[in-house]
Specification:
Shape: globular
CATH architecture of the domain at 99-196 and 417-620: 3-Layer(aba) Sandwich
Strand order of the largest sheet: 4-3-16-15-14-5
Strand content: 15-25%
Radius of gyration: 25 Å
Largest sheet: 6 strands, mixed
Helix content: 25-40%
Number of strands: 31
Distance between the termini: 20 Å
CATH class of the domain at 99-196 and 417-620: Alpha Beta
Number of helices: 32
């Protein structure tokens, strides 16, 4: 990271890439150095130490880099490498000067890398791109709010507006943001959950009644067995490695199921332990299963069959009969279904050996307390909802739900993405929530479901969106089918982006555009009644406060709450039923309304000020009560898919690099996977490279194949030999997003199926380069 904004862009030419063998362990001394040195260099020692030692602490701010839970007993350094990078990226003293906008056209900026854009520094003044112009220019806050209100009032229908939300938005902002949209008259509230764990929410909501984690942080240390599926905690949520280490310290076992080798699942050198600094560290995965993409549901069903066969061989000794009889239904139908499971098909779909499957079944059968945890390696398949239901089936058979050390643990990757959903950021909130808004505010909100992310892109392409507003995020880069998204955004009347730094979405706009700069999570939020705090919800349903610690980088910045209030007051003034001005003056008033509308938030303000905050009620976890249609947990029969891979083709998944947070790129390196100086890489099993006749290190074009006949391609990527499952390949997100068709989504959740893409590799048709 540079001490000042770079003038020259970095080259992403794949020919410059340096490749070394992947690591077989994560963190250790290198993790500490990569955490501390950039922060001190960028922010200065005082500012860096203030922020890093306040991150994830009881009176500090919540890390923006993931939604990992905080332990009750926190260490002085309760942060990871990527958390430190996220803070350094946000809290940089570099700012974008007013002269930048006249010197740089939108067209010229569009040719810059995502890394270069972010490295220009913090946005500190509102800017506006008028119709017909190719430059942003400064605008006052009042004029920006008036312009937004004018365009919203000019719409023929409230549904011509869409209000997107990034996961980092705090609970209070999310609540009044969705209130503004619904008071306007639309449920068009897509969010980043639509692109990641929507399949989880759909599946778990149907079978256990709630789509959230069924365990607490302390359960990791109590588990006999943790099965980690489709995730890479060493990069995406590194503090999870400490929880996995606690499991191993207490005698538990860990099984990793993934399509490629990841260092963080193999061995962990905890930098806060002596053995993590000078010793070997802790071996994590007792069994590592390189599974074929999309085979996870087949594996879960095969293990369930083994469990039922073991019960048949020793009746009354394997299944948790008391739990099943009192709390579940559907067992007999499921038992009949799995009897006919084709074992050869399981081996074909998973790419595993029978011995590997038998070993996992044996581990599960001999473990009384089992956690299954997963991320987007499961949620972004065409049949993702069915895959996750198979996970729940397996857990239910032996009562691994609602007891210490056991349960379902989807890991959210974005801080407060789960809290935003709790606050109503969803295009299809249930009637109980909507009726609560009506009752609390004396208004009438719409009931018709709105747009999710994929539907919102389609609406933009069809010219149905007059105003698009995004509370954070970089959706044009994050969503599938990049060219379709760019086409959609170019047709929007007014694009409003609430942001801290420049990104690709600011340059992919239609007639008019606004960038509204806001406080970062690290910065003190001072309003009329004094310093304010916000709240977030982590992956295990814990609500806790987050409070900035350093002076804002500019006095021109507003809080996200103030931005929403400014737009709402420009729309409706101060005479309506909603006291918008009061929200901005004192965030306690927002929390009072949240308490009145959303169950579980009783005494919100009081409990938020407690040392640990509080945990939301969760029937399946707390009392083995299941708020489903029948009042019981549902063991379900699911028809799983097998993704055909024609000869000469591969199955692609996209993933993050280590120096990356979502679409934010910290560098071109990925040291755990042995990649430096370029992100234009496709990882392929060495036997597949040989079979395809492609040399390790060759520059190739990557084409995806889909039924619509469109040739989607990314060019000049380096093919790198890597330990992946046979027939599978991987590339980075968002570079691989153009390969994912907008129409390829998960059944039932409409999540982009970024892990179910069939590709072919061809010799590069153009010189390597960006």
């Amino acid at each position: 990271m540079a001490a000042k904004a770079p003038i020259e862009d970095i080259s992403e030419d794949a020919r410059n890439m340096e490749v070394s063998p992947p690591k077989d362990w994560a963190a250790g001394v290198p993790g500490v150095l990569h955490s501390m040195i950039p922060g001190i260099k960028e922010m200065g020692a005082g500012r860096a130490l203030t922020l890093l030692t306040d991150m994830n602490q009881k009176d500090g701010f919540d890390c923006m880099s993931c939604a990992w839970a905080d332990p009750d007993h926190r260490k002085t350094f309760e942060f990871c490498e990527n958390g430190a990078k996220a803070v350094t990226w946000e809290a940089t003293p570099v700012t974008i000067p007013t002269s930048f906008w006249a010197q740089n056209s939108i067209s010229s900026l569009s040719g810059k890398s995502e890394y270069w854009l972010g490295m220009q520094g913090r946005l500190i003044e509102p800017v506006y791109k008028p119709k017909g112009k190719d430059h942003y220019e400064p605008i006052s806050w009042d004029d920006a709010f008036a312009l937004i209100a004018d365009r919203l009032k000019a719409m023929d229908s409230p549904d011509e507006a869409t209000f997107y939300t990034s996961g980092r938005t705090a609970n209070e902002t999310a609540f009044i943001y969705q209130l503004m949209a619904r008071n306007l008259g639309t449920n068009n509230l897509p969010d980043c959950s639509n692109m990641c764990h929507e399949s989880t929410g759909k599946a778990m909501g149907e079978v256990i009644g709630i789509g959230k984690n069924t365990i607490a942080y302390k359960d990791f240390g109590k588990a006999d067995l943790i099965i980690v599926m489709g995730q890479n905690p060493g990069t995406n949520h590194p503090r999870m490695l400490t929880a996995l280490e606690e499991c191993k310290d207490n005698g538990g076992k860990i099984v990793a199921i993934n399509t490629l080798h990841e260092a963080g699942l193999s061995r962990y050198k905890n930098p806060q332990r002596v053995r993590g600094i000078i010793g070997h560290g802790t071996g994590l995965a007792d069994q590592y299963m390189l599974i074929r993409a999309g085979g996870d549901g087949w594996l879960m069903k095969a293990i369930s069959k083994k469990v039922l066969e073991a019960e048949d061989a020793a009746p009354g000794t394997v299944l948790d009969h008391a739990f099943l009889e009192e709390h579940c239904q559907g067992l007999e139908e499921f038992r009949e279904h799995v009897k006919d499971l084709d074992n050869d098909m399981v081996l074909k779909a998973t790419g595993l050996t029978q011995a590997e499957i038998d070993e996992l079944a044996d581990r599960y059968l001999h473990s009384e307390r089992v956690i299954i945890t997963w991320a987007m390696g499961l949620t972004q398949h065409h049949d993702a909802v069915s895959i996750i239901k198979e996970v729940i089936n397996l857990l239910l058979l032996r009562g691994n739900m609602g007891k210490p050390g056991a349960g379902a643990s989807p890991i959210r990757g974005h801080s407060n993405v789960q809290g935003d959903r709790t606050m109503g950021i969803w295009e299809q909130m249930p009637e109980k929530f909507l009726a609560g808004l009506d009752r609390e505010f004396g208004i009438s909100v719409p009931r018709e479901h709105g747009y999710d992310v994929v539907k919102s892109v389609t609406a933009m392409q069809e010219g149905k969106t007059k105003v698009w507003m995004a509370m954070g995020g970089n959706m044009v880069s994050a969503v599938s089918d990049t060219h379709a998204a760019e086409d959609g955004f170019s047709k929007v009347g007014l694009n409003v982006q609430v942001s801290t730094k420049l990104n690709r979405n600011h340059l992919t706009v239609g007639d008019e555009a606004l960038i509204l700069p806001v406080l970062g999570r690290t910065e003190i939020d001072m309003q009329a009644t004094g310093e304010q705090s916000l709240s977030v919800e982590d992956s295990v349903c814990a609500i806790h406060a987050t409070k900035g610690k350093v002076k804002p980088i500019s006095s021109l910045l507003k809080s996200e709450v103030a931005v929403v209030v400014g737009i709402a007051r420009a729309l409706w003034g101060d005479d309506g039923p909603i006291d918008w001005a009061g929200f901005e003056k004192n965030y306690d008033t927002i929390r009072d309304h949240i308490e009145a509308v959303i169950p579980g938030f009783t005494d919100f303000n009081k409990r938020l000020r407690q040392d640990h905050g509080f945990v939301l009620p969760h029937g399946p976890r707390d009392s083995r009560t299941f708020p489903t249609k029948t009042g019981k947990a549902m063991i379900t029969v699911n028809d799983l898919e097998y993704i055909e891979r024609p000869e000469g083709r591969l199955l692609l998944q996209s993933m993050r690099a280590h120096d990356q947070f979502n679409t934010t790129i910290y560098s071109l390196d990925d040291r755990y996977r042995g990649i430096k100086k370029s992100r234009r890489v496709i990882f392929v099993n060495p036997d597949d490279l040989k079979e395809l006749g492609i040399a390790d290190g060759a520059i190739v074009d990557v084409h995806s194949e889909y039924s619509d006949g469109v040739d989607r391609v990314v060019r000049a990527f380096k093919a790198v030999s890597y330990p992946t499952s046979r027939g599978c390949a991987a590339t980075y997100f968002p570079e691989g997003n153009p390969l994912v068709p907008l129409g390829l989504t998960a059944m039932g959740s409409n999540t982009p199926a970024s892990k179910s893409v069939v590709i072919r590799l061809e010799p590069a048709s153009v010189p390597a380069g960006r």
